[in-house]
Structures are given as C-alpha cells and as structure tokens.
Amino acid sequence: MAKPVVEKKYTLGERIYLLEILKGMVLTWKHFVFNFMASFRSGPHTVPTTWQYPEDRREISPIFRGEHMQTLDDQGREKCIGCGMCAKICPAQCISIVKAKVPEDQQELYAGKTYSSSFNIDLLRCIFCGFCEEVCPTNAIVLGQGYELAEYRREGCQRDKARLIENFRLARESGKLKPQRKPVIVAEPKAKPAPEGGAQKDPGVQKVEQAKPKKAAAAKETT
Ligand code: SF4
Ligand code: SF4
User: Fold this and answer.
1) CA–CA separation, 121 vs 39, rounded Å?
2) Which one of 13, 77, 125, 189 is CB 3.0 to 4.6 Å from 111, fit for a cystine?
3) How many CA atoms within 13 Å lie on the side-chain side of 103?
4) With a 6 A CB cut-off, is 132 part of the ligand 2 pocket?
5) Nearest atom in ligand 1 to 97's CA
6) Host domain of residue 24
7) Rounded to an integer, what distance in angstroms lies between the CA atom of residue 138 and that of residue 77?
8) Any idea what the CATH number is for the domain that residue 80 is in?
9) Domain check: are 120 and 165 in the same one?
10) Are residues 36 and 115 in the same domain?
11) Residues 4-20: pLDDT tens digits?
12) Looking at the domain assignment, is residue 119 inside a domain?
C-alpha cells in the first residue's frame, strides 16, 4: 500500500531558511568547542571524544584475550608439564611443543615430572580463541592483556618459552594478572565393590557372563 504523503506546513522562519541554518551552525560549534577543549585535558578522557592513543590507554577487561604468557608457581617453577593438550585443541595449529622428562638435577625448576623443553606459538596464525587456556590442566598458559603485536618481520610474531615467561613476569610486576581459573580436575574412576565370596572379576568377563542367561532364555522362548 502506498504511503500517504503528508504535506508539512512550514512556518515563516522555516521558509526563510536563514534561522534554521544559524540553529544548525550553533549546534555544530557547540560540539566543536566542547571536543576541542576536551582534547587539552590531561589523562584519560571522560568525554566521548577520540582517545589520544598511545598517550591515553583504555583499561583492558581482566578477561581480555591478548598475548600469551607461561605462568610460574609461587616457588618460581614452570607449571607446564608438556602434556600437549593446548597444541592438540588449538584450531589454528599454531602451538608446537617438545615434551621431556625433568632431569634429576633440575627438579627445583619445574613443578611436574615432565616439562616442555621447547614451546612455541606462532601469533600470525593464532585467532586468540582462548581454547589453549581453557584446556590447560595446570593453568600454565594464559592469554594476557598485551595487544600491541604489530611487527615488521614475520619472525617477530613467534613466541618461544623464554618470551612467554617474560610476559608473565612483566604482567605480575605491573599487577595485570588475571584471577586464576580453577584447574581442571579429572575425576578418579569409582572402584566397584568386590563381589561377595571371591575376588573381583574382570568387568569384560562379567558382561559376557551376564549376557549368557538372557540368550538362553530367548532360545527357550523360540522353541
Ligand atoms: S601449556 Fe598446559 S596444556 Fe599446554 S603443554 Fe603445558 S601443561 Fe599442557
Ligand atoms: S588462542 Fe586459540 S588459536 Fe591461539 S594458540 Fe590458543 S588455542 Fe591456538
């Protein structure tokens, strides 16, 4: 259905236009002066004007997913056990790990019995999804608040273990560590009580034995 055209009745002032142009200019100048004066204020702006980055920096949310870091425990030991779960789940396949057993004379450096002798993240491929952080059983890998990741060369976008640990140290010193997520606890399988009058049978064997009487009953019904 066609929309009916409503003819607007203009006042004399509107028909002259000059007054309307002046009203528009007053509004424009009001905003201009307001924002111009705001740009001289020091510190982060509290008015809706352009942030003067990099001098002004917005506060980053504590759950922001930025540049990765590898955390250390309270005793300064590496928490990564080199399990490779982060590399396995990474949709961009940008994590590469080499797992190794902790040498006898270096036990004080690592929290686990194994560690990652090599750990690398290719930030050019990373999509900052946070899956690696979610899946890590020891909270060893965390996505921090670093977002200035531009580099002139591709090699600059590689993050090795030393750099990841350095990221953690810097974040800890500047008080920008995320609240710790509860580590994933894998539930122990419940032990079945031993049957009365004998040792516990293998569950696989039990299944076969339980199936037998049913089969026999079915055969009886058909005959
Ligand atoms: S960072 Fe976490 S998930 Fe990745 S290898 Fe180390 S312990 Fe495993
Ligand atoms: S944030 Fe996502 S894409 Fe980046 S390394 Fe972790 S799992 Fe891979």
Assistant:
1) 40
2) 77
3) 3
4) yes
5) 5
6) 11-41
7) 12
8) 3.30.70.3270
9) yes
10) no
11) 888 888 888 888 889 99
12) yes
